[in-house]
């Protein structure tokens, strides 16, 4: 067995490794088993203690529950608490039985005995007595029983349970600490064992190196002696049985063999001399190959020159000419042509214009073109030369046409290159070589196409930048301009943005400084933008001089790419309009302050006089009249503010009905006549179509503003003409005065909120600048338009247009005789809308009655007993629609009549809650109301109430 391992180095190594692995595994398994047993033992102890802890906690919770239920019973007298106590008593006895069986230590038995004694006394003595006291109403005995120690015994038991829980928890914590300590010790032993095994492994490696490395080194020394020409007689370690001994023996035999074969080596040297001659012949062949290589090098140089020539131009025509001329030269061809499919462009060498046209007309539809697309390979056509190709030679001879397809990176054919050799053809190797050149041609063509696309995108982006209303400027990190748009060019007073490109920081800031009054802050902002010193979101406002003074807001943003700042984008925004609006608002605040304080001063002054002095009745009346007028003026001003706020928020409500515009305007004129004795009012009515659908009060407000303005801005008096006429689509009202007129520069802003014409005469007249803005919004809501024409010093004409509405009058004759019946009663104060609804329902075969007052309608409803009622909310008379529906629903004779509310008020839920059968918000189609009525009546018919009339 010993010799078995001596004969092999591998066996020795395996034996050593096996011993090491066995020791390592044995130690690791032993340590692992120890660790597992230790952990399992401690975990079992922890689990047992935790179970005991849970048992005690449950018992304490049950006892607490019994205490709360008993207190609940004594407080409320509910038997449910007694039932819960009985269940908890059973559970406590069951838990005590289980606890006595499982846990038998002295502490466990003491706790169990204490709880058992307490529960026996509590459930068998204390609790029944207390319940008896409660049922008999002996509360004083119950309180005395509690104070005599009953409560203290409960607290003592609960305290014992808490103390026991604390002890068990401390035991669990101690076991956990013991587990952590022993686990740490186990890990330290494991680490020490691994360290020991590493040391053992190092020792084993050292022994193996000494066993195998030393002999090998001695053999290597012998080899070195032989190499140096020394004569060696003895080789060490030849007596060993392993591989080293075999190597020594073999090495010794090699030495002997070498010495014996010295003569043979001399003979071999002579043979090598002969081989040298053969190598000389091969060298000659290599020289020939070198010549061929030099020729190939020249060819490569030509190809490199070709690639260089087609790579240094961005002009497509020049590129095509360069490609075909170089291909003809490289391929030793007589002529050639390249055809670019996109754009149908060609370039040729040795071809006439007629031949190029012939190629473009016929080749795209030829089979050769389809073959090139399908195969993606070059194709050669061998043919007889034409007469023009032969020249002065009479006999025919062969020529070759080589068609080379050029494909893009997406494998789409983009061009075809054709070259021709007159008198010879192309070899297969040449075709393959030229196909490689075609790939270079494709790269050049794709490059120039990409350039053209990028150039188009650059021009598009430039146009987009120039179309932006803000001035945009891109500068580098030194402040020099990289790019700018047309708007910035206008700010800089130049013609084209390209004139600013590459302009140095000092030059463009100097030009900008010359157009700005307070340039120091602007230059500081720009300097901060260049060096990223400005805070995020900061901007600067300055005035730019010129023919028209502009207010410019400037802000900047750094241009970052890959965490590197490339430059800064500076934006110049023209905020002249916003600035003017801000100024207008400031001026408006001043104006409003004046407009509010003036009437308030009058009110306060006259009120103070009346309070502090004894005045005659006529003077008191005069003062009260003044106070009333100034208060009315304040009310009008405040109403204007509220109207503007409501219109902006969309909360303004309009009660739209059909009205004649004539009485509305006439009422306004009548009011204005009282306030003005210098003006003459003229009505010019040229149409009979005077109906509008709108809110009467709002329409009155429109014409009150316009006519009062006509009076106000005609301080010297004159004629105020109101003309009414119509076109196919509009009812038009002109209001013309002979006053101050309006400058043309102010007409565009006239209907803007808070705007007032900048004129001293108008400043004296006063006003808030809200009236015309309100007028425009009201007219717009009514589907109309408003415009103005004016001549300064001669007066103005305001034109209001409303959609034309045909007058509809339906005379519903209602007879109150006995036997007459109305199927549907309409309660509506707008006679036009009532007429429309009546006409629609009469077409359906119903008999209709109309009323505009709720009081009259209620009397007739009692008499006529209609099948349905159509009710408006806003009515003439004292009752509104809400009161009418409440009255009808409270009456036993009318509560079941379906009521359909037709109103402009958006209070649908209120109407439905009051019992309405339908709720329609004006404006709506009459057919929509009819459909709702028919649907309700059909449902009643199915229930056997009525029969719906047939349509006429």
TrEMBL record:
Occurrences of domain HAMP (ranges): 210-263
Residues of the Histidine kinase domain: 591-806
UniProt-annotated location(s): Cell membrane
Catalytic activity: ATP + protein L-histidine = ADP + protein N-phospho-L-histidine
Record-annotated Response regulatory domain positions: 823-937
UniProt-listed Enzyme Commission number(s): 2.7.13.3
GO CC terms: plasma membrane
Species this protein is from: Fictibacillus phosphorivorans
Residue stretches in coiled coil: 255-296
Alphabetic keyword roster: ATP-binding, Cell membrane, Coiled coil, Kinase, Membrane, Nucleotide-binding, Phosphoprotein, Transferase, Transmembrane, Transmembrane helix, Two-component regulatory system
Cited Pfam families: HAMP, HATPase_c, HisKA, Response_reg
Record Gene3D superfamilies: 1.10.287.130, 3.30.450.40, 3.40.50.2300, 6.10.340.10, Histidine kinase-like ATPase, C-terminal domain, PAS domain
Name under which the protein is recorded: histidine kinase
GO MF annotations, alphabetized: ATP binding; phosphorelay sensor kinase activity
InterPro entries according to UniProt: CheY-like_superfamily, GAF-like_dom_sf, HAMP_dom, HATPase_C_sf, HATPase_dom, His_kinase_dom, HisK_dim/P_dom, HisK_dim/P_sf
Class of enzymatic activity (EC top level): transferase
TM region positions: 12-34, 188-209
Residue numbers bearing the 4-aspartylphosphate modification: 872
Major location category of this protein: membrane
Membrane topology: Multi-pass membrane protein
